[in-house]
Q: What sequence folds into this?
């Protein structure tokens, strides 16, 4: 177990190096540079900025310097926001994005898992059809439609909730619902499929034959294995819910990390883009590792090694 | 994505507007009462909440370039002059009075006595000298340092060819006297003096903290407000500066400047009553025609022009007759009035309207018969033999619709093949500044109320020219105007330069922008003006706006008169 963990952690290094290298050269391939703007910048000023950020040095030197700094988690100041180090931007942004994503994931599980169980137990009956219809809708309605729709009803129609901004518990409700809808729907479908498969297996028949109450059969024996697909989905989902909240952050004016990545790319803010991309990469690696560990814990047939 | 989103919201708003409660948007019950867009309940405190737009990149006055940055810089720092919120006429700011020499090249500013920074440090003439030299130093890398080039020796110092600060025409014989020697007479100097690049910065803070001096925990300012809090991508909170030269002049205790980029979101926050002012440009353009029915919607000509630039280094656009043909074949009215539903004004000049005393040359007009004649004269009768040209625009729904309309006008009207090419913003900038395009969509916003803020960009070799067009006669006219001490003569020279520019056709003006903003009826002190500049210290919340009595605006004026020095 410990050896497995160590090996996985060691594998992070080449992966991150590859991602850092690809991103480093990719952002520099994009046309234009960080200091282009509608209003032309005087040549002397441009040269000065290039010197300040080391962009006047050969690319190889820039690359080595960047790798050395990145290893110490130092990405330097953002080009666009000179008063803010990239590390601080990420730290501030991720706190908000993680809270938004965390709540959304929690809601998705609290809604999706029970609905999936109900649908599996009532297979091909009205409850099942209803749950799966709602789930289909949840997966198909994009969040840039759902968000404004919720705002229109609950903020501008009923005046119950604020239409945007990140302040106070009330402001969390609409963005969390918007972000969680698609995940809740998907979790419900996965739970249903997983439960249906498990419920047909021999050990469940044995449990029922022993005379265990149905509630125990479902919650104690079936659920543990039935949830496996959901667990393996949780890793990518957790990463996606944090990284993929971009649209929701935009629609609800939430100061999360997603907006920085997109604006950073548009503005050729190399340091910011590099920092955010590497941060996302780390996040994804760690979450995948956690999923694998959880898998081993849930399914006795899985062995780590 | 932004547009599809806006359309969804608009469609839903239209569907729901019949049944959904609209707060107390309709004040009173009389049928003639004005209709407002959403809630009209003022905030309880003396706080102004507005959308400042994109997240400010910096609030350092020397570096601020965008409108969101500039608006905050001007609220935190005060220059020698301040702009009147109605007329933009410069009035005394940190300077109480000034004199100018007969030839207009020597200015003496007398600062108010006892000026202080918000931390109590005294502020004097030497602070202005230091701040301007800082903005000019190449190390500072200020984009707008060119606005200081009016000062004698400033341009050479800025380019790094002169390194001695004494070579710049600035002197502070004592802390209340500032002497500025100009390279040439600048009739709009007092307007410039209120511009961000001309604002003073606290030397003791800048030297101590470097780039981090603008952070809320370090910053010290001399303007109407001090920075209390900065939550990136969310808001900046400003508070009245108790050490401001005249604190009573500042009408709001607190200002919350939100950084909301999404147009629909900003408009929704305004509708729900969480913003008192949705600044210009933050209403989704499909909404604008529907907003006209509301009394809190405001629109006025704004000094910005949308134009196409032609790359004259690429044949056949190097031929003046081709450029004239392209210009004459554009039906500007069809674009501004029909396609954009009157939210823009058809425009046939590079300089916008509203420059006092400017004898603007005749505008370019639509004349298809003449356009065909020009094209024949260029050697392409009926468009025969004309190579395919491409229209480059940065990706946006409106840009695409306009490009399609112009493509149709040129293809159908002149018979020349035209293709469209859209790129993301950074790539568009790169293509235009390196002259890798045929025809490109551009726009320009003026910095001050003078035609030179537009005409200067077309000087040969200017970084903003981006057409490859250079005409010695044009440059000579601009230089002659710059040295002309008589204001009327000067404007006449500029008008001749613009006439020459329009006749030569490196640019195809399309339309003139309007500012479009939403201002709650209880907000006072915002007047539409050509620069779309609204000093925050003049804006306040009128909690008694519903009370009968003198009309709100009249009350606002009375309030201002008492507060103005």
A:
């Amino acid at each position: 177990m410990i050896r497995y963990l160590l090996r996985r952690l060691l594998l992070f290094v080449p992966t991150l190096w590859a991602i850092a290298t690809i991103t480093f050269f990719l952002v520099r391939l994009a046309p234009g540079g960080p200091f282009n703007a509608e209003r032309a910048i005087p040549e002397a000023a441009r040269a000065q900025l290039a010197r300040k950020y080391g962009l006047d040095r050969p690319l190889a030197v820039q690359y080595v310097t960047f790798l050395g700094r990145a290893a110490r988690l130092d990405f330097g100041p953002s080009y666009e926001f000179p008063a803010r180090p990239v590390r601080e931007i990420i730290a501030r942004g991720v706190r908000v994005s993680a809270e938004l994503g965390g709540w959304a994931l929690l809601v998705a599980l609290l809604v999706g898992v029970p609905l999936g169980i109900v649908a599996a137990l009532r297979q091909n009956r009205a409850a099942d059809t209803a749950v799966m219809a709602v789930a289909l809708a949840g997966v198909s309605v994009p969040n840039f439609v759902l968000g404004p729709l919720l705002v229109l009803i609950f903020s501008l129609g009923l005046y119950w909730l604020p239409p945007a901004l990140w302040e106070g518990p009330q402001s969390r409700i609409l963005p969390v619902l918007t972000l969680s809808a698609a995940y809740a729907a998907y979790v419900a479908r996965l739970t249903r499929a997983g439960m249906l498969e498990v419920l047909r297996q021999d050990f469940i028949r044995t449990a029922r034959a022993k005379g265990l109450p149905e509630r125990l059969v479902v919650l104690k024996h079936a659920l543990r294995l039935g949830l496996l697909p959901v667990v393996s989905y949780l890793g990518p989902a957790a990463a996606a819910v944090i990284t993929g909240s971009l649209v929701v952050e935009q629609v609800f004016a939430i100061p999360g990390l997603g907006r920085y990545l997109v604006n950073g790319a548009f503005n050729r803010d190399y340091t910011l883009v590099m920092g955010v991309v590497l941060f996302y990469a780390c996040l994804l690696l760690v979450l995948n590792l956690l999923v694998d560990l959880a898998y081993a814990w849930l399914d006795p047939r899985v062995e780590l090694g | 994505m932004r547009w599809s989103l806006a359309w969804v919201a608009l469609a839903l708003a239209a569907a729901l507007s019949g049944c959904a409660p609209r707060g107390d948007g309709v004040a009173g019950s009389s049928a003639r009462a004005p209709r407002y867009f959403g809630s009209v309940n003022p905030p309880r405190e003396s706080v102004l909440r507005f959308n400042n737009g994109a997240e400010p990149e910096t609030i350092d006055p020397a570096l601020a370039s965008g409108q969101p940055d500039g608006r905050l810089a001007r609220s935190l720092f005060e220059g020698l002059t301040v702009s009147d919120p109605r007329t933009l006429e410069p009035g005394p700011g940190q300077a109480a009075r000034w004199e100018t020499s007969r030839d207009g090249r020597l200015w003496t500013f007398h600062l108010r006595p006892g000026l202080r920074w918000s931390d109590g440090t005294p502020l004097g003439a030497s602070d202005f000298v230091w701040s301007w030299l800082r903005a000019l130093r190449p190390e500072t890398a200020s984009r707008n340092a060119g606005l200081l080039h009016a000062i004698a020796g400033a341009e050479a110092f800025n380019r790094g060819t002169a390194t001695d600060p004494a070579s710049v025409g600035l002197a502070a014989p004592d802390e209340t006297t500032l002497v500025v020697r100009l390279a040439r007479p600048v009739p709009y100097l007092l307007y410039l003096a209120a511009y961000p690049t001309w604002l003073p910065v606290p030397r003791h803070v800048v030297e101590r903290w470097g780039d981090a001096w603008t952070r809320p925990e370090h910053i010290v300012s001399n303007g109407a407000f001090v920075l209390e809090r900065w939550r990136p991508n969310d808001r900046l909170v400003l508070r009245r500066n108790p050490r401001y030269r005249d604190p009573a002049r500042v009408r709001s205790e607190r200002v919350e400047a939100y950084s909301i980029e999404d147009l629909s979101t900003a408009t929704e926050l305004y509708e729900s009553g969480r913003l008192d002012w949705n600044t210009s440009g933050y209403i989704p353009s499909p909404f604008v025609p529907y907003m006209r029915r509301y009394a809190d919607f405001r629109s006025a000509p704004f000094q910005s022009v949308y134009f196409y630039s032609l790359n004259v280094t690429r044949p056949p656009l190097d031929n003046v007759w081709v450029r004239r043909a392209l210009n004459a074949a554009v039906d500007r009215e069809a674009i501004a009035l029909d396609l954009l539903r009157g939210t823009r004004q058809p425009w046939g000049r590079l300089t916008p309207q509203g420059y006092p005393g400017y004898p603007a040359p005749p505008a370019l007009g639509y004349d298809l018969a003449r356009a065909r004649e020009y094209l024949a004269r260029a050697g392409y009768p009926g468009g025969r033999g004309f190579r395919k040209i491409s229209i480059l625009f940065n990706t946006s729904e409106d840009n695409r619709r306009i490009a399609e309309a112009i493509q149709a006008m040129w293809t159908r009207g002149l018979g020349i093949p035209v293709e469209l090419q859209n790129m993301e913003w950074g790539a568009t900038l790169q293509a235009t500044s390196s002259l890798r395009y045929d025809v490109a969509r551009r726009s320009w916003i003026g910095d001050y109320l003078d035609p030179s803020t537009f005409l200067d960009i077309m000087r040969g070799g200017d970084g903003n020219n981006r057409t490859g067009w250079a005409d010695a006669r044009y440059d000579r006219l601009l230089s002659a105007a710059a040295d002309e001490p008589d204001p009327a003569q000067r404007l006449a020279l500029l008008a001749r330069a613009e006439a020459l520019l329009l006749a030569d056709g490196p640019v195809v003006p399309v339309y003139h922008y309007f500012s479009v903003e939403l201002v709650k009826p209880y907000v006072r002190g915002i007047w539409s003006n050509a620069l779309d500049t609204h000093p925050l210290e003049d804006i306040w919340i009128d909690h008694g706006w519903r009370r009968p009595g003198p009309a709100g605006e009249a009350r606002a004026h009375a309030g201002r008169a008492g507060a103005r020095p």
Q: What stands out?
A: Chain A has a mean pLDDT of 88. The two ends of chain A are 7 Å apart (CA to CA). Chain A has 13 helices and no strands.
